[in-house]
Amino acid sequence: MYHTALAHLFRSSVNEQEHAPIHPPFAGEETSMSTAAAPDLPADIAKAMRALEVRYGTPWSAPLPSWNDTLDTLLAHRSVRSYAHRPLPEGTLETLIAAAQSASTSSNLQTWSVVAIENPERKARLAELAGGQSHVREAPLFLVWLADLARLEAAGARSGASVEGLHYLETLVVGIIDAALAAQNAVVALESLGMSTVYIGGIRNRPEQVAAELGLPPRVLPVFGMCVGYPDETRPAEVKPRLPQAVVLHREQYDAPSQAAAITQYDEIMSGFQTSQGLSAAGWTSRSLARWRSRESLHGRDRLREALNALGFELR
Ligand SMILES: Cc1cc2nc3c(=O)[nH]c(=O)nc-3n(C[C@H](O)[C@H](O)[C@H](O)COP(=O)(O)O)c2cc1C
Hints:
The structure is a single chain. By secondary structure, the protein is of the alpha+beta class. The chain has 2 domains: 2-78 and 238-283, no CATH class; 92-234 and 294-310, 3-Layer(aba) Sandwich (NADH Oxidase). The chain has 13 helices and 4 strands. The chain has helices at 2-11, 43-56, 69-75, 92-101, 120-129, 134-138, 150-159, 169-192, 207-214, 245-248, 259-276, 285-290, 304-310; strands at residues 112-117, 141-148, 196-200, 220-229. It has a 4-stranded antiparallel β-sheet with strand order 1-2-4-3, sandwiched between helices. Helix 1 (2-11) packs across helix 11 (259-276). The structure holds flavin mononucleotide (FMN). Flavin mononucleotide binds at residues 77-79, 81, 133, 198-202, 224, 240. Residues 77-79, 81, 133, 198-202, 224, 240 line the site of flavin mononucleotide.
């Protein structure tokens, strides 16, 4: 009964969007568990409540300070793995890079770069290196986001400056954070324009081969890939519910004991979501733990330290 109500919620959530921004429809929708279905709510608030309800798979109870198109875009995010045969508009790449470069960057060091790949043969090779992910091949644009310590190293060599700090783990962490912040800005920009993405962590399965394919210099790490394209409307992706805020939001101090009950509730929500997607209703906990079950379940990334050393990172 609970799952049936949720399945209806997930089915009704998406994919009648025009282009930007995408958001779950609200008007006229009612579900048995919907706070957003109250008829006297202003339309924008009702839409917001609906988006929050779909994001968590439960009614939303906190007050909303206000709402806007940016929040609409963020709340409606979903990874897309099926792309339309539709070229990206001219200037898409440059626009998403401008959005990416607008992200904060540690000390303005800008220790990231990105390689844009449209060549079908290269995409096919990268798809295989990433564990045979067909969407890498099918997306019109594939981006590989890089933690790039080589640029500043080269600047140091040109000016004769010491770059000892380059060799510390901290510096690589900075580069990885910078790359991730830039990439997520690109995701939001693309989704605001009606396009879709999926991150590809599989690019770290075989980092040395990816580095060779992309001609990377030493001390440049492929952090993750990203497929970019218009979503295939015949195979729509749905908004995937997230952990309850009670699990991730800690007030003043970290609260471990109260997490288990909320995670049990989320397992039920995810089972309902998985059922609505035609997947086995495993829930969140068991699916997630399977990713950590063994060394083999890391798909080659268990040797990341060795790969990093081979790519020129000393990790002092
Ligand atoms: C760093 C990172 C790496 C990911 N790697 C992959 C991947 O290799 N293949 C894939 O299909 N999805 C990948 N994903 C997508 C996640 O599976 C997805 O974001 C998650 O299941 C939540 O779904 P949603 O993005 O639709 O909300 C990755 C996401 C992130 C953030």
